[in-house]
Amino acid sequence: MGTLTDITEEIRLTGRALGEFGRHLFNPTVRLGVTGLSGAGKTVFITALVHQLLHGGRLPVFEALASGRIARARLEPQPDDGVPRFDYETHLRALTEERRWPESTSRISELRLVIDYQSARGKNRTLTLDIVDYPGEWLLDLPLLSMSYAQWSASTLKLSQSGPRAMLAAPWHRHLATLSPTAPEDEQAAVQAARLFTEYLQACRNDRYAMRMLPPGRFLMPGDLAGSPALTFAPLELSGAGHAPPGSLGAMMQRRYEAYKDVVVRPFYREHFARLDRQIVLVDALAAFNAGPAAVKDLEGALAAILGSFRTGRATFTSTLFRPRIDRILFAATKADHLHHTSHDRLERFLARMTERAIERAKFSGAAVDVVALAAVRATKEATAARGRDKLPVITGTPLAGEALGEDRFDGEAEVASFPGDLPEDPAVLFDGFKGLAATRETDYRFLRFRPPPPEPGRTGTPTLPHIRLDRALQFLLGDRLA
Ligand SMILES: Nc1nc2c(ncn2[C@@H]2O[C@H](COP(=O)(O)OP(=O)(O)OP(=O)(O)O)[C@@H](O)[C@H]2O)c(=O)[nH]1
Ligand SMILES: [Mg+2]
Known about the structure:
By secondary structure, the protein is of the alpha/beta class. It contains 16 helices and 12 strands. It has helices spanning 4-26, 42-55, 63-66, 88-96, 149-160, 163-168, 170-176, 187-205, 217-220, 249-271, 285-291, 293-307, 317-322, 344-354, 356-364, 470-478, and strands spanning 29-36, 70-76, 109-118, 124-133, 278-283, 328-333, 368-373, 381-387, 390-397, 404-405, 408-409, 416-418. Strand 10 and strand 11 form a beta hairpin. Helix 7 packs antiparallel against helix 8 and helix 11 packs antiparallel against helix 12 (293-307). It is globular and about 70 Å long. The two termini are 38 Å apart. The model is unreliable at 318-322 (pLDDT under 50). The structure holds guanosine-5'-triphosphate and magnesium ion. The site of magnesium ion has 5 residues, from helix 2.
């Protein structure tokens, strides 16, 4: 912080906060950030949350609804005219009618839900909930805002030399060795470097390695900007090269890196992130358990980098006025339906351990924090299977077509019982000391992907989606605003 753009940025944010504060006095609004890396479960979570609220699903821990104080919830036109609407209807149809998961998200979208309720004192009130969905890759761009090109190059290179990444980065590293930052700028060299660097990022993302720390996000999800100069750069070996002179390859890369931040990252931060008042941070730990300890450490690093860019603190009159802040954060381990319930506490402890520092910081600034293991949509059931004389807790569900376990390949129709592995009592074991796909075929955990469940008939005739602890999440995120 401190440069002229940052100061102008602060003033701009403050100005808007003032305007929104005035409107919110008369029309209480919660802007909920559903945050998470790609594949964490944001789109599914939003769809399930909206569905449960619109149709009054089974949510015993969500007090306002369980006690009958919510009269009704309805969708209304969203506040931002320039942002596409979250396609709730299509996502819901995919889940309930076709029993398939929504597609991975490629652009930002927004939805507004208005809740008519009776306050605990019996007054009729409304609460407006604005929710934004976006591609998870973009999240990794936020830490770039506080990094120069030289810092980003150095840290990206260092990371690419460790663990399974070193092997995946080899073709890019070979090309990099032929480049000199002080050589004259060269478009073809930049194009080639950006292409090889992007291929390295894509290889890291493969299920087998499940790496998550992969900025810049648009390299993996370019949208309209594919091929533009702002996306045609890559790290360079700068150590000892001194300052890159004007007209050099180094200067060109640096300029484009800064353009990326201006064109892509700052607008996303300003238009979306800086306006949130509550956050749920979704984390898919199971993909990392499948891949191995290197993926767990990588996920931890990615989360630490992202959570560093949150502004937290209790919302007071002045803080809302001068700086929007997040006053509640829920860390949620998603897809808990892949584990037997006896492991849910352990999954929560693991996530708490993983986000330890962010939790400390948020609490210190006065924000309320909680950790939960949930499934927005519960795709499995629990059962016990006999193995010899032992009874083994298993989960049953329909694996997605193409999923495989050992020699078995699933067709997307057959239901199976599987034992994915119990999580250990001590979360430390999950950071080191277990076997994953990246290193061996004999892995300690194997979480299959299941199809969404067949819908259950609901009270009102609308089918309901089973879930795990979605009500606890709602109570924490909205309970006090519906009191
Ligand atoms: N069993 C189960 N699987 C889930 C659940 N939520 C998400 N998934 C799985 O996780 C995948 C990704 O979920 P999404 O909601 O699309 O993830 P996202 O965070 O929106 O990902 P991006 O759009 O790529 O950023 C889905 O296709 C499902 O396979 C859940 O509650 N239970
Ligand atoms: Mg999505």
